[in-house]
Structure formats: C-alpha cells, structure tokens
Amino acid sequence: MIIDNVKVYTPEKKFVKGGIILDGKTIKKVYTEKETPDLRENEVINGNGSYAIPGLIDLHFHGCKGDDFCDASKEAIARIAEYEASIGVTAIAPATMTLPIKELEHVLSVAAEYRRETEDYRKADLVGVNMEGPFISHVKKGAQDERNILPCNVEICEKFLKASDGLVKFIGIAPEESGNAIDFIEQMKNKVNISLAHTNADYDTAMAACKAGANHAVHLYNAMPAFSHRAPGTVGAVFDSKDVMAEIICDSIHIHPATVRATFQMMGADRMILISDSMRATGMPDGQYTLGGLDVKVVGKLATLVLDGAIAGSATNLMDCMRTVVKKMDIPLETAVACATINPAKSLGISDQYGSIEAGKKAHIVLLDSGLELQAVIKDGKRI
C-alpha cells in the first residue's frame, strides 16, 4: 500500500509533503514530494493533502461504548479496542480502578490472555496496563472506592505483575500514605514505572519519591494538591524532576485552557502525555453508568459521581482531546500529536515499534483533514 499526497508527521515533529510506502504490517519508506514512487501494482490511497500522523496511544483510560476494562471480559476488551481503533487510537494501555486484590488479579490475567490470543487489524493493540489503584490516598481518592485502598506493598505488586504476564507498565502510589514508600519505589522501579497517583503528598514527600525513582504523574492537577506559590505540592515536585513524565486530561472539563497552556510552557512539551481518562460512557448517550463499582451521571462531556458530585473520569476519547488541545487551547498541532504518540510510546517502552512514522515501525497511520476530522485509519497496513 502507498499513502500518497499527504503531509507526513516526522520524528522531528514537523509536517513534510510526500507519502508513505507500506510493506505489509510495517512502514517501508517515507518519501517527500520531490521523489516519485512507483505507484503501479500498488494499492494507493490519495490523501488529498491530509495530515498523516501516527496512530494515537492512550495510556490512561477506563473504557468506552458501554464497556470497562475492569469488567474482566475478553469480549469487553475486544469491543473497547475496536472502538478505539475506529477513531484513530491504535494502541491502548487501559487503567484499572481501586478494586479488591483478587479482582484486580483476575482483571489482569484476563487482559494477558486476551493479548496472547488476539491479533486483529480492526482493533487497537493492547500494549500495557496502567494501574491507578489500589495504593492511593483516601484524601484524594476522587472516583475510587476507598474501601479497597491499601498502602503500597511489594508482595501485592509482584502479584499484579505476575497476573498480567508483564502487561502492567505503571503502578500508581500515594507516597505519603505509607512509611515504606521509598523502599517500595527502590525495589520496584526496575520492574515497572512508578506513578504519583491520587496523592495528597506535599512537595518534599513527592520530591523524595521522584528522587527514589518515581518517573510518572497520573493526570496532573487532578486528584493531587493544588499548585500554589507557597505550597507547590506534587505538581511542583514533578516540575523539578526533569525525568518525570506527566499525563494531562484535555477534555475542557478537567483543566482550564490557560492552565494547560501554562503547564506546557512550564513542563516542556517533551514531558507531557495527553490522555483521555475516558469511562464506559464515552461514545454513548447521556445517562447513568458505573466506574469502579460507583454510580456515575454523564451529561455531555461531564461525568460526575452520583454520591458526591466529584468528577469521575471523562466521556471524551483521546482523538477528541487532541482536537480540543489544538482548537480550544492553542497548543500547536505538531506539539499535540507528539504528546499523543511519541511521548506515550516512550513512557510505555514501545517506541521501537510505535509512536512515529518511520521505516521499520508498525504501519499505524491516521489521516486527518485540515479541520482535524478523521479521513482514514490504517492499522497493520490495512485500512479499517
């Protein structure tokens, strides 16, 4: 297959006029408009000047189209993966909620089994799992069920890694909740990425966790102390820790556009990862749904707990979040694409195959028109 007459997004985070030659499931070559490829005996897609970007990677979301990753069903994962691929998200690392240990082990073992059995170009690749709980804060629990919150524990974490057959890529912790948090980080940091998640840690505590090896922040600003001039909290510690990557939800509900712009300036775009944090209501009508066993009311893009009105994930997919970042938050398209492709691929440790349009990498390519509306999704060298 040849994708011709497009503006190709390069690893240098620029758009170059040209095209892409595919060889089965992989990218064979990227060419510029000055080159003339042989279009004979090839399936050719005329992009008509579209943007050609890598397939997006969502490393933090819970579900969509009525299904949740924690439903612990291979059929549910398949439906989630099919929806995500259809909107241009071609690789996924769903997030778990704070559930009982045995339930989480079951969720992870089902996911591992699904990955071993499933290879389908119509479905997003399951490339990881992001464990948002149970090692979190009671104070900053958000939409998590506090009955299942635990202090971080190496033995339990090892069980999660084993159940997932290596699929777990991130373990979230609230370092202030346990006297052994630093020891936990030092023991686990070479086996899994350690995230600061749903934490009430002050600057010093969060900074100590980062210095010990925590390298990721779950949905920056949300479910953590406010960033202020005298108490910079977890956000300030993340800023001062230059090797820590930061997720950010850009659905126009969770974070004000001015804060998003300021954060990109403050952190630097190379450290920002766009996530959707979407729940099962995404792609569904308004109504009442569940998240982590708790009832959630969804009206438009706003999802809130029925119990106390707390924001409960989002009802916006990652492609729409990326559009929002560009159209409503004034982040350049080149930057937004990197934060939804290159950066998450690096954090997940899969940048050798995913996240950019380069020879030898997976043929996961999305075409967008000038208004950023979806024109085509090519996955594993086939058009969905």
TrEMBL record:
The keyword Lipoprotein does not apply. Keywords: Carbohydrate metabolism, Hydrolase, Metal-binding. The active site is at residue 277. SUPFAM superfamilies: Composite domain of metallo-dependent hydrolases, Metallo-dependent hydrolases. Residues 52-382 form the Amidohydrolase-related domain. The keyword Amino-acid biosynthesis does not apply. Gene3D superfamilies: Metal-dependent hydrolases, Urease, subunit C, domain 1. Its cofactor is a divalent metal cation. This is N-acetylglucosamine-6-phosphate deacetylase. It comes from Mediterraneibacter gnavus (Ruminococcus gnavus).
